[in-house]
Amino acid sequence: MPLADTLPALDIAAHRSDSPAEVAAPQDSQRDSYALTVTLRDGGHALSRIVTVLNSLCVTELTFRTPEGAPALCEIVVPAADAPRARARLLRCVHVLDVTARRVRR
């Protein structure tokens, strides 16, 4: 395909206005998120492993706590669309003991 055929389409997309009338309101499913609570054995590198596993997903919040004498806890907030994939990836980690999910509104 010649370059001249693609430029008009790109030009139209670049100059399209984003007035409030043209921008669609987010659907309820797009505003919903899930907080995944991960219980894991902290071997010193647990946080870096979690970050690596969820590298390609949209994570909006992440908290990590290591209570003395107890398993580490990590709470990760992801969009509803990414929650099943994030949970499945986390469950495959060797150090993860449990993953629970709860719905949160943003």
Q: Could you explain how this protein is built, in words?
A:
Strands 2-3-1-4 form a four-stranded antiparallel sheet. It is globular. It is an alpha+beta fold and 106 residues long. 14% of the residues are buried. The protein contains four helices and four strands.
Which helices and strands appear, and what pairs or packs with what?
Layout: H1 3-15, H2 28-31, E1 32-40, H3 46-53, E2 61-65, E3 72-79, H4 83-91, E4 96-105
Antiparallel strand pairs: 1-3, 1-4, 2-3
List unreliable stretches of 5+ residues: 1-26
N-to-C terminal Cα separation, in Å? 43 Å
The number of helical elements comes to 4
Number of strands: 4
What would the keywords be for this entry?
106 residues, four-stranded antiparallel β-sheet, disordered N terminus
Short recap of the structure:
This protein is 32% helix and 30% strand. It has 106 residues and is of the alpha+beta class.
